[in-house]
Amino acid sequence: MTDQATAEKGVRAPRMLVMGVGSSGSRAVSAMISLNPELDAVAIDTDTKVLEALDLDRTIHVGATITRGLSSGGDVELGRQSIEKDSSSIRKQLREVDLLVIVAGLGGGTGSGAVPVITRIAREAGALVLIMVAMPFKFEGPKITRIAEESLKRIRSHADAIIRIQNERLVDRSDSDLPAEEAFARSHQVMMDAVFSIGRLLSRNGICGLDFASIHTMLRNCDGFCHFASAEGAGKDRAKAVADHILTHRLLNKGRMLESAVGLVVGLTGGRDLKLDEIECVMNRIHEKLPAAVWLNFGVAVDPAFEGRLSAITLVAEQWKEPLVDGGNRQMGLSFNKNSGQGELPLETTGKGEFTYTDPTVHNNQDLDVPTYIRKDIKLPR
Ligand SMILES: Nc1nc2c(ncn2[C@@H]2O[C@H](COP(=O)(O)OP(=O)(O)O)[C@@H](O)[C@H]2O)c(=O)[nH]1
Ligand SMILES: [Mg+2]
User: Is residue 360 assigned to a domain?
Assistant: First the structure.
């Protein structure tokens, strides 16, 4: 095979799989599929009634012998046992997956018990794991909150990054008429925005900048949590509207989080009518809020369905686990000069971060701490 043929064979878009876990997670995934049937997604629950009610082809029922098809009844241990028992069906889903996005509402038994286990299995399989969890509303009571917090701690010890959606921040306390259903729907909407935008930016629709390497850098190195916000605008002033919304976004602490960010990924999606001016307008306004030395990466995707609209997502890191280092433990020049355009990491020299001084996780002679796409020498599209 010629070099060119080899290269062509190796080039493929990174594969993202979305896994909805527990009843809320499964419903979220079902809502995503109904809007985008192409999405690679699977729903997993102990409760057959919930799975059957979803209009989904790909569902996995776990813990049949443990809960007999019923829900875990809020028992986290039953959720954990159910997934351990059926871990082989989870492993099968993970073949060739580069990025696994797990979606769940914490506070119940299945999602809270199963997500930490699935996260561990996926890391062992070599996938980059992004967890998107909704934390319960205050009105659900202290017991539910405690279950969610404890599950989050366990997830944290395995996941690359967690996007924690504080349901409480999605509602305005003055909005006393807000139907409960609408309140829950908002957290599903945030998850949906995040999944769709990351998917678009990783696909071949991306016309500049953002690629799997930058998302990888951000997720692996942020200090566990990464904050997400999205905004959309339409019409003539859409760029300004999108920037204003991001700069005052509730999920970014009314925009204050940007002032102390250490890392930021911005993804813009527009239609074929997207103008360079508009990209500049959004980026310049966001730049103004950022500290001088920030690691910034942005990407733009064009999707004909976005004609007349502009959407932006941001992933914000407030802290790195440790200064980003290369294989020789040399500090990398990651500071982003606000005036110099885009900052980007040379992927090949990315180090093992916090794993620099720990033994590698070796399986079948492969170091699982090295991302799948590097181990398999998959050339990522730039
Ligand atoms: N967005 C959304 N969240 C929900 C919904 N139902 C429950 N939740 C949230 O998800 C948490 C877990 O509930 P659930 O998914 O039913 O539990 P599980 O099936 O045992 O994992 C709850 O504490 C709620 O905060 C829903 O319909 N939509
Ligand atoms: Mg349930």
Answer: no
Q: Hey, whose CA ends up nearest to atom 25 of ligand 1?
A: 136
Distance from residue 353's CA to the centre of ligand 2 (Å): 37
Tens-digit pLDDT profile for residues 32-66: 999 999 999 999 999 999 999 998 999 999 999 99
Measured CA to CA, the distance from residue 316 to residue 176 in angstroms comes to: 30
Residue 113 Cβ < 6 Å to ligand 1: no
Give the chain's length. 382
325 in Cβ contact with 334 (< 8 Å): no
Q: Residues 18, 117: one domain? A: yes
Q: What would the pLDDT profile of 170-191 be if each residue is shown by its tens digit?
A: 777 677 788 888 888 888 888 9
Q: Token pair 């009610």 is at which residue?
A: 53
pLDDT at site 118: 97
Is there a domain that residue 365 lies in? no
Residue 4: pLDDT band with limits 50, 70, 90? very low
Q: Report the distance separating Cα 131 and Cα 104, nearest Å.
A: 8
Which of 367, 286, 358, 355 has the alpha carbon at shortest distance from 324? 355
Q: Once rounded to an integer, what is the mean pLDDT over residues 143-156?
A: 95
Same domain, 114 and 235: no
**Choice from 23, 50, 62 to test ligand 1 binding pocket (greatest atom count within 8 A of CB):** 23
Domain that holds residue 118: 14-202
Q: Whose CA is nearest to atom 11 of ligand 1?
A: 105
